[in-house]
Amino acid sequence: MKKLVILLCVLLLNGYVNAQTECSIYHKGYFMFTDSLGNTILVHRKNKYQYEYNRKTKVKTQFRINWNNDCEYTITQANTNSKSRKKYRNTVTKVVISKSDGGNGYYYTCSCIDGSLKGKENFMKKISKQEFYDLY
Questions:
Q1: What CA–CA distance (Å, rounded) separates 32 from 44?
Q2: Which of 3.90.1150.10, 3.30.980.10, 2.40.128.280, 2.40.50.180 would CATH assign to domain 2-135?
Q3: Domain segments of the chain: what residues?
Q4: What's this model's pTM, rounded to 2 decimal places?
Q5: Which positions ≥6 away from 66 have C-beta within 8 Å?
Q6: Higher model confidence: residue 41 or residue 119?
Q7: Over 50: is that where the pLDDT of 5 sits?
Q8: Residue 15 has pLDDT above 80, yes or no
Q9: Dist. CA 52–CA 91, nearest whole Å
């Protein structure tokens, strides 16, 4: 019985570790999500930066991205072309990837600046470079 419990614990821990390590595929690349107003936001991540473009309002925002662990990161607004968003410069937003959907993208929760998505799960869709520039 003791061996069965140990085996079960090892299997559960292994599943947890595998789920956590899946997130590394999201550290760079092209993505898109829908904000709380229904706008499509295009995202490009590379190196230590995340670039976002709102297709409807044409707002471009640059963030510094810091990966706290494989499935959790913070973004700090560095620059924007929006006068109304300039007040959020240097504001930090914490994002937790709650569920991976492989190459399709991931579900996440955030402590968003305006509180609109706080506690709500949203989906970040992984897209190709070609899709990104076709939508841009």
A1: 9
A2: 2.40.128.280
A3: 2-135
A4: 0.80
A5: 48, 73, 74, 75, 76
A6: 41
A7: no
A8: no
A9: 15
